[in-house]
Amino acid sequence: MGTEKTQLKVLGVRIETIRLLLRVIIFISIAGAAISSRLFSVIRFESIIHEFDPWFNFRATKYLVSHSYYEFLNWFDDRTWYPLGRVTGGTLYPGLMVTSGIIWHVLREWLSLPIDIRNICVLLAPAFSGLTVISTYFLTKEMKDSNAGLLAAIFMGIAPGYISRSVAGSYDNEAIAITLLMATFYFWIKAMKIGSVFYGTLTALFYFYMVSAWGGYVFITNLIPLHVFVLLLMGRYTHRLYTAYSTWYALGTLASMQIPFVGFNPITSNDHMAALGVFGLLQLVAFGDYVKSRVPSVQFKTFLAVSLTFVILLGIAGLFGLTALGWIAPWTGRFYSLWDTGYAKIHIPIIASVSEHQPTAWPAFFFDTGMLIWLFPAGVYFCFQELRDEHVFIIIYSVLCSYFAGVMVRLMLTLTPVVCVAAAMALSNLFDVYLNIVDVFTTSSNEIQEDKSTTKKSTKKSGVLEEKNVILPLITKLVVTLTFAFYLFYFILHCTWVTSNAYSSPSVVLSSRNPDGSPTIIDDYREAYYWLRMNTPEDAKVLAWWDYGYQIGGMADRTTLVDNNTWNNTHIATVGKSMSSSEDVAYEIYKQHDVDYVLVIFGGLLGYSGDDINKFLWMIRISEGIWPDEIKERNYFTDRGEYKVDKEASQTMKDSVMYKLSYYRFSELFGGRDGPDRVRNQDIPAADPPELHVLEEAFTSENFIVRVYKVKDLDNVGRNLFDATKFDNQLSKPLKRARTIKRPVLPIRE
Amino acid sequence: MAKKEVSAAKASAAIKKSQSGSSTLGSSTSGVSRFQKVQKSINELSSAVNTTYKDYVETLTPRLKLIDLFLVFLVLLGILQFIYVILVGNFPFNAFLGGFISCVGQFVLTVSLRLQIKVGSKPIEQVEESLKSNVEDEKVETDDSEDNDIDEELVIKTTNVEQEDTKIFKVISPERSFGDFIFASLILHFIVIHFIN
Asked: How many contacts does A have with B, using Cβ atoms within 8 A?
């Protein structure tokens, strides 16, 4: 925002024109800042897709651009969820893929810029963050004025809470969904304010885009009706409200049913019933309003009482009746887990196991929004002071989202926009008072009244010239302004620091430092996935925990049993069982599911904490949910109830496939001494190394992070695999020397 | 004509409701006063309906009449589809939803248009009401010989509301509202056609 100093003299042009020009320039710089701060990951690492879900989106996008749109919608993916497969076209939100597909086609065919689809996918999120900034500006402008709008825009551009999901390479649904969220809200506020069918239609269109892009559209589906409902309760019905809401609901509902994954949900599931109910209510209120304007109030009261009881009874009976009949689906598990934080842990461990679904720790609020979090309540307070219809919206939004963000880390993302808007309103109110030096110089106000947000410089200049009673308020204003300028400055530093340090890691490639301090890159994932791609048959089935399903599909291009879609809990529990039970049980599962390779992630050597041993408890819990009499969580703890992997580990733990695969030949690295596990700070005993009978080691990456094992085939002479392995081991001992001698005598190509 | 029937039906439904609702209560305690009360409220109700209807007829212009006819047509169409689904079954659910929602959507849009372009009159939404409660078969005589002299207070109120109304959509001129209406309808029907396949 440093571009504003020159124009003070250019008063030959009309001030409005200058303002417009300035606004455009500020916008361009804000968008530039927003985009460039999201490019840390590309600069530090490379243009690569991040994390887990983006890999699926990337794979789907590749499918979309190499096939037609209809093939994409009818896509049955037989390379995941083996042997079930996944109706991918019908179970995804196509908005993201279609967006990047369209961009790709436009660039390629209209502009003749043949860009790799990967680059479009990587850079889509930063590009859309630029659009988010614009829609945030317009939304805040509706709330207060364009000064607040600009502040909100810059906050939105650099707030880490939003950056966390939109750095370059995090090609996820949220990347475009937040943009659409803000745009939908903006058009809704606009439609509600002027009662325009046109804006209502636009709201519905953006709502449709949002539905096509992210499952979080349910948030809009409930927030807008809630807003209308609260306005009705406050007695603020107007025909504008009727027009805006009815248009949005009728069009938006119909449009949202076009998405195959959503299907008939908008009229059959309980999540969407609030919108329908408010729609009906609004019709009645509109009618009641009409009657009210025609009829004396006494008559109207009776009329109201009779019809209200009738309608409410009918509505409640209808809802319960239809739910009982099974016509309306009850609320989903994720919904319950929002209200009862313990719910997921008890009933659906698979939801609770995702780290994004954990409750938020309070420092995270400061970490993700910096100083905005304490300006946020002030902004909400200003909303209460004015309390126009649109302020009610912000209040509802902030209350709901504060709660949700407290329940789930992931929903921090939806809180961030409203924090930015409210904080901008607060700050802009403050600046309105403290940067306005016009009332101090009531006599010579003409020169300075021009631009409120730019007067820092002129404050200094003219403050000296005036007499004493002017200086005092000036000093106050100066102090407050400078304090806040200081805060803002540190806010920017904080945001940049958080972005570059916390949110820019692709988590596929890890960065670390050598003992001498030089940076180094740990690329074990891609090493292992590439090994799989090049060294295994194309139809090999890889069993791994579901976290890695999308990556294996995307990078190694091999069939997986489970992936991050998690649509079939039993199948995941089966994989969990194969990991947590002993080898013979696991082997049966392997054979039943045609498994060729087993892949585990192990961070003990490097101290990489997101490995499978740490996730192991969730595997146990999930499979315990399906086979409570075979898998028992208690057996994996020591007698004292500790989760240990060293020599005190329980026998069940030591027998489990996961333990064996992780620590197989681990202590050999340390020359026969106990191997230290740097994640859990425990020593793995060298005396009793885990032995494998039904699996053999196929590949281990440089830092031991990814370990791939091959499932042995049934024995040729019909022996038990345990006996066969034992026999082989005995056999190989005397042969060992012979082999080492033999090795150099490889046939040399002529 | 249809309007009158509908409003009458509405009134009758409400009357029935109030009768049944309060008769259960009144049986135990003082039944006579209850009955008088109910009688009074019935009178009030029907007079309310009559006032509304009279006022509606008074303020009708040809253009609004056209819109209202269209609204009635939409409601009838919606009800027809609903009856069809109940009788025959909802096999092509897409088609039914498309047809039904296009009726509802078009209805809502038209009401919005009506709200926006009306000069002096108010919208009629009894039809909407009847769509919701779906009562129209019972034919009870309308006792329209009530004491519904519209007092001055009411007239003043109405004019006040009218002034307010002209302010409500001050940004939107009738021409623009018609343009908006067409735009929204086009999109609505595009989606409907897409939905029906």
From this structure: 156
